[in-house]
Design a protein that fits this description.
9-stranded mixed beta sheet, alpha+beta, 290 residues, 6 helices, globular
Length: 290
Protein backbone atom coordinates (compact mmCIF):
# COMPACT_ATOMS: atom_id res chain seq x y z
CA UNK A 1 0.00 0.00 0.00
CA UNK A 2 1.32 3.42 -0.95
CA UNK A 3 0.05 6.56 0.79
CA UNK A 4 0.43 10.13 -0.45
CA UNK A 5 0.19 12.60 2.45
CA UNK A 6 1.11 16.28 2.02
CA UNK A 7 2.66 15.32 -1.32
CA UNK A 8 4.99 12.76 0.31
CA UNK A 9 4.87 9.01 -0.39
CA UNK A 10 5.02 6.28 2.25
CA UNK A 11 5.05 2.58 1.41
CA UNK A 12 3.42 0.18 3.88
CA UNK A 13 3.77 -3.61 3.64
CA UNK A 14 0.12 -4.59 4.10
CA UNK A 15 -2.55 -6.07 1.86
CA UNK A 16 -5.76 -4.54 0.57
CA UNK A 17 -7.78 -5.64 3.60
CA UNK A 18 -6.11 -2.90 5.64
CA UNK A 19 -7.45 -0.22 3.33
CA UNK A 20 -10.94 -1.63 3.73
CA UNK A 21 -10.59 -1.65 7.52
CA UNK A 22 -9.32 1.95 7.69
CA UNK A 23 -11.56 4.13 5.50
CA UNK A 24 -9.71 7.26 6.63
CA UNK A 25 -6.85 6.08 4.40
CA UNK A 26 -8.95 5.76 1.23
CA UNK A 27 -8.35 9.29 -0.17
CA UNK A 28 -4.60 8.92 0.42
CA UNK A 29 -3.98 5.56 -1.26
CA UNK A 30 -2.21 5.92 -4.60
CA UNK A 31 -0.69 3.58 -7.15
CA UNK A 32 2.99 3.11 -7.79
CA UNK A 33 5.77 0.85 -6.55
CA UNK A 34 8.94 2.82 -7.27
CA UNK A 35 10.69 2.57 -3.91
CA UNK A 36 13.00 5.46 -4.78
CA UNK A 37 10.08 7.90 -4.75
CA UNK A 38 8.90 6.90 -1.25
CA UNK A 39 10.35 8.74 1.73
CA UNK A 40 9.65 5.87 4.15
CA UNK A 41 9.23 2.11 4.08
CA UNK A 42 7.06 0.54 6.81
CA UNK A 43 7.45 -3.21 7.26
CA UNK A 44 4.84 -5.07 9.30
CA UNK A 45 4.94 -8.50 10.95
CA UNK A 46 8.57 -8.11 12.01
CA UNK A 47 10.19 -9.48 15.15
CA UNK A 48 11.05 -6.53 17.39
CA UNK A 49 12.95 -7.37 20.61
CA UNK A 50 11.53 -5.83 23.77
CA UNK A 51 13.38 -3.44 26.07
CA UNK A 52 14.51 -3.99 29.64
CA UNK A 53 15.89 -0.49 30.24
CA UNK A 54 13.69 2.43 31.34
CA UNK A 55 12.22 4.40 28.41
CA UNK A 56 13.55 7.80 27.42
CA UNK A 57 10.05 9.22 27.65
CA UNK A 58 6.46 8.09 28.17
CA UNK A 59 3.15 9.45 26.92
CA UNK A 60 -0.21 8.52 28.45
CA UNK A 61 -3.76 9.09 27.23
CA UNK A 62 -7.10 7.40 27.82
CA UNK A 63 -6.69 5.44 24.61
CA UNK A 64 -3.03 4.38 24.68
CA UNK A 65 0.35 4.45 26.39
CA UNK A 66 3.50 5.06 24.37
CA UNK A 67 7.03 4.39 25.63
CA UNK A 68 10.00 5.69 23.62
CA UNK A 69 13.63 4.61 23.71
CA UNK A 70 16.02 6.95 21.90
CA UNK A 71 19.40 5.39 21.16
CA UNK A 72 22.42 6.52 19.12
CA UNK A 73 21.37 4.52 16.06
CA UNK A 74 17.66 3.93 16.45
CA UNK A 75 14.33 4.88 17.97
CA UNK A 76 12.12 2.21 19.47
CA UNK A 77 8.51 2.63 20.59
CA UNK A 78 5.99 0.45 22.36
CA UNK A 79 2.31 1.21 21.90
CA UNK A 80 -0.19 -0.27 24.35
CA UNK A 81 -3.91 0.08 23.77
CA UNK A 82 -6.52 -1.12 26.29
CA UNK A 83 -8.77 -1.78 23.31
CA UNK A 84 -6.47 -4.55 22.08
CA UNK A 85 -4.97 -5.40 25.48
CA UNK A 86 -1.61 -5.94 23.87
CA UNK A 87 1.57 -4.02 23.12
CA UNK A 88 2.84 -3.33 19.62
CA UNK A 89 6.45 -2.41 18.92
CA UNK A 90 8.07 -0.10 16.37
CA UNK A 91 11.73 0.29 15.50
CA UNK A 92 13.24 2.93 13.20
CA UNK A 93 16.55 4.47 12.26
CA UNK A 94 17.10 7.96 13.62
CA UNK A 95 15.85 9.57 10.39
CA UNK A 96 12.83 7.21 10.12
CA UNK A 97 13.70 6.06 6.60
CA UNK A 98 12.81 2.47 7.45
CA UNK A 99 10.26 1.56 10.12
CA UNK A 100 9.70 -1.98 11.33
CA UNK A 101 6.75 -3.08 13.44
CA UNK A 102 5.47 -6.36 14.81
CA UNK A 103 1.90 -5.35 13.95
CA UNK A 104 -0.28 -8.03 12.40
CA UNK A 105 -4.05 -7.92 11.69
CA UNK A 106 -4.99 -10.22 14.56
CA UNK A 107 -8.23 -8.45 15.55
CA UNK A 108 -10.58 -5.74 14.33
CA UNK A 109 -9.26 -3.46 17.09
CA UNK A 110 -5.68 -3.92 15.91
CA UNK A 111 -6.34 -1.61 12.96
CA UNK A 112 -6.73 1.32 15.35
CA UNK A 113 -3.17 0.72 16.51
CA UNK A 114 -1.91 0.44 12.92
CA UNK A 115 -3.46 3.84 12.28
CA UNK A 116 -1.40 5.23 15.18
CA UNK A 117 1.73 3.52 13.88
CA UNK A 118 1.26 5.11 10.45
CA UNK A 119 0.75 8.56 11.97
CA UNK A 120 3.86 8.30 14.16
CA UNK A 121 5.98 7.17 11.21
CA UNK A 122 4.69 9.97 8.99
CA UNK A 123 5.13 12.69 11.62
CA UNK A 124 8.79 11.92 12.24
CA UNK A 125 9.86 10.97 8.72
CA UNK A 126 8.16 13.98 7.11
CA UNK A 127 10.07 16.25 9.51
CA UNK A 128 13.08 15.82 7.22
CA UNK A 129 11.00 17.10 4.29
CA UNK A 130 10.05 20.36 6.05
CA UNK A 131 6.60 19.14 7.08
CA UNK A 132 5.11 19.48 10.57
CA UNK A 133 1.87 17.99 11.88
CA UNK A 134 -0.01 20.27 14.27
CA UNK A 135 -2.96 19.89 16.63
CA UNK A 136 -5.41 22.23 14.91
CA UNK A 137 -8.60 22.61 12.95
CA UNK A 138 -7.99 23.71 9.37
CA UNK A 139 -10.39 25.54 7.05
CA UNK A 140 -9.97 26.45 3.39
CA UNK A 141 -11.58 29.11 1.23
CA UNK A 142 -10.87 28.60 -2.47
CA UNK A 143 -7.11 27.93 -2.74
CA UNK A 144 -6.07 29.41 0.60
CA UNK A 145 -6.46 28.21 4.18
CA UNK A 146 -5.89 28.90 7.84
CA UNK A 147 -5.48 26.88 11.02
CA UNK A 148 -7.17 27.40 14.40
CA UNK A 149 -4.69 26.17 17.00
CA UNK A 150 -4.86 25.40 20.71
CA UNK A 151 -5.33 22.65 23.29
CA UNK A 152 -8.33 20.33 23.31
CA UNK A 153 -11.56 22.03 24.36
CA UNK A 154 -10.42 25.56 23.50
CA UNK A 155 -12.92 25.97 20.64
CA UNK A 156 -10.99 25.12 17.48
CA UNK A 157 -13.66 22.87 15.96
CA UNK A 158 -16.43 25.22 17.09
CA UNK A 159 -14.82 28.14 15.27
CA UNK A 160 -14.32 26.05 12.14
CA UNK A 161 -18.04 25.25 12.20
CA UNK A 162 -18.80 28.97 12.48
CA UNK A 163 -16.80 29.55 9.32
CA UNK A 164 -18.67 26.77 7.53
CA UNK A 165 -21.97 28.34 8.59
CA UNK A 166 -21.20 32.00 7.94
CA UNK A 167 -18.26 32.34 5.51
CA UNK A 168 -19.23 31.74 1.86
CA UNK A 169 -17.21 28.97 0.27
CA UNK A 170 -15.53 27.82 3.49
CA UNK A 171 -14.82 24.10 3.75
CA UNK A 172 -13.26 21.95 6.45
CA UNK A 173 -9.86 20.56 5.48
CA UNK A 174 -9.00 18.68 8.68
CA UNK A 175 -10.23 18.84 12.27
CA UNK A 176 -7.33 17.49 14.32
CA UNK A 177 -3.98 16.86 12.62
CA UNK A 178 -3.41 18.98 9.50
CA UNK A 179 0.08 19.22 8.04
CA UNK A 180 2.07 22.40 7.37
CA UNK A 181 4.74 21.98 4.71
CA UNK A 182 7.41 24.42 3.61
CA UNK A 183 8.21 23.88 -0.07
CA UNK A 184 11.60 24.64 -1.67
CA UNK A 185 10.27 27.80 -3.34
CA UNK A 186 9.25 29.21 0.06
CA UNK A 187 5.55 28.46 -0.31
CA UNK A 188 3.88 27.23 2.89
CA UNK A 189 1.06 24.78 2.24
CA UNK A 190 -1.69 23.49 4.54
CA UNK A 191 -2.71 19.88 3.93
CA UNK A 192 -5.41 17.53 5.08
CA UNK A 193 -4.31 14.22 6.59
CA UNK A 194 -5.81 10.78 7.35
CA UNK A 195 -6.05 11.77 11.02
CA UNK A 196 -8.89 14.09 11.93
CA UNK A 197 -9.85 13.16 15.49
CA UNK A 198 -13.53 12.44 16.02
CA UNK A 199 -14.56 14.31 12.86
CA UNK A 200 -14.88 12.35 9.63
CA UNK A 201 -12.88 14.69 7.43
CA UNK A 202 -10.16 13.06 5.34
CA UNK A 203 -9.22 15.23 2.38
CA UNK A 204 -6.08 14.63 0.35
CA UNK A 205 -5.87 18.29 -0.55
CA UNK A 206 -3.47 21.15 -0.05
CA UNK A 207 -4.03 24.90 -0.06
CA UNK A 208 -1.71 27.82 0.54
CA UNK A 209 -1.47 28.69 4.23
CA UNK A 210 -2.46 32.31 4.77
CA UNK A 211 -2.87 32.74 8.56
CA UNK A 212 -2.57 31.03 11.93
CA UNK A 213 -4.98 31.75 14.79
CA UNK A 214 -4.08 30.73 18.35
CA UNK A 215 -7.36 30.34 20.19
CA UNK A 216 -8.26 31.73 23.62
CA UNK A 217 -11.72 31.75 25.15
CA UNK A 218 -12.72 35.25 26.32
CA UNK A 219 -15.65 37.52 27.08
CA UNK A 220 -14.97 39.62 23.98
CA UNK A 221 -13.58 39.13 20.50
CA UNK A 222 -10.08 40.48 19.97
CA UNK A 223 -7.21 39.74 17.60
CA UNK A 224 -3.59 40.54 18.43
CA UNK A 225 -0.86 40.14 15.82
CA UNK A 226 2.02 38.01 17.11
CA UNK A 227 5.70 38.42 16.41
CA UNK A 228 7.65 35.64 14.76
CA UNK A 229 9.16 34.57 18.10
CA UNK A 230 5.75 34.55 19.80
CA UNK A 231 4.32 32.52 16.92
CA UNK A 232 7.17 30.01 17.16
CA UNK A 233 6.62 29.56 20.89
CA UNK A 234 2.90 28.97 20.44
CA UNK A 235 3.23 26.71 17.41
CA UNK A 236 5.79 24.52 19.14
CA UNK A 237 3.25 23.73 21.87
CA UNK A 238 0.81 22.42 19.26
CA UNK A 239 3.27 20.31 17.29
CA UNK A 240 3.69 16.56 17.36
CA UNK A 241 7.30 15.98 18.37
CA UNK A 242 9.60 14.09 20.70
CA UNK A 243 11.42 16.90 22.45
CA UNK A 244 14.30 14.71 23.65
CA UNK A 245 15.01 13.38 20.17
CA UNK A 246 17.41 16.11 19.09
CA UNK A 247 17.57 14.99 15.45
CA UNK A 248 13.85 15.25 14.66
CA UNK A 249 13.41 18.20 17.02
CA UNK A 250 16.02 20.18 15.12
CA UNK A 251 14.38 19.41 11.78
CA UNK A 252 10.90 20.36 13.01
CA UNK A 253 11.99 23.51 14.83
CA UNK A 254 13.95 24.80 11.83
CA UNK A 255 10.91 24.36 9.59
CA UNK A 256 8.67 26.04 12.13
CA UNK A 257 11.02 28.99 12.51
CA UNK A 258 10.85 29.67 8.78
CA UNK A 259 7.06 29.27 8.69
CA UNK A 260 6.63 31.61 11.66
CA UNK A 261 8.65 34.28 9.90
CA UNK A 262 6.55 34.03 6.75
CA UNK A 263 2.94 33.49 7.86
CA UNK A 264 0.84 36.07 9.80
CA UNK A 265 -0.32 34.76 13.16
CA UNK A 266 -2.76 36.09 15.75
CA UNK A 267 -3.73 35.55 19.34
CA UNK A 268 -7.49 35.16 18.97
CA UNK A 269 -9.52 35.89 22.08
CA UNK A 270 -13.08 35.02 21.18
CA UNK A 271 -16.59 33.92 21.96
CA UNK A 272 -18.29 31.23 19.82
CA UNK A 273 -20.32 33.71 17.78
CA UNK A 274 -20.88 34.76 14.19
CA UNK A 275 -19.17 38.05 15.01
CA UNK A 276 -16.01 36.18 16.01
CA UNK A 277 -16.01 34.30 12.70
CA UNK A 278 -16.40 37.59 10.83
CA UNK A 279 -13.46 39.08 12.72
CA UNK A 280 -11.09 36.17 12.00
CA UNK A 281 -12.20 36.02 8.38
CA UNK A 282 -11.46 39.72 7.93
CA UNK A 283 -7.96 39.16 9.31
CA UNK A 284 -7.60 36.17 6.98
CA UNK A 285 -8.53 38.32 3.99
CA UNK A 286 -6.21 41.16 5.05
CA UNK A 287 -3.21 38.96 5.86
CA UNK A 288 -0.12 39.44 3.76
CA UNK A 289 2.42 36.65 3.72
CA UNK A 290 6.03 37.58 4.34
Amino acid sequence: MRLSIAGLFIDVAVDASVVEALPNLHPFVVSGNDEASAICQIRTGQHIPGEETPPTLTSHSEEKTIHVWIKPGECKLSLYSPRTERTYWMQADRHWCTVQTDWIPDSSESYVCLNDILMIAFVYRSAFYQAVTVHASAVAVQEQGCAFIGPSGIGKSTHSRLWLQHIPGARLLNDDQPVLRLHPDGTVMLYGSPWSGKTTCYHNEGVRLKALFFMQQAMENRLTRLSGIETFQQLLKATSLMGRDTITFQAISQTQATICGAIPAYRFQNQPTEEAAALSYQAFQDSRMG
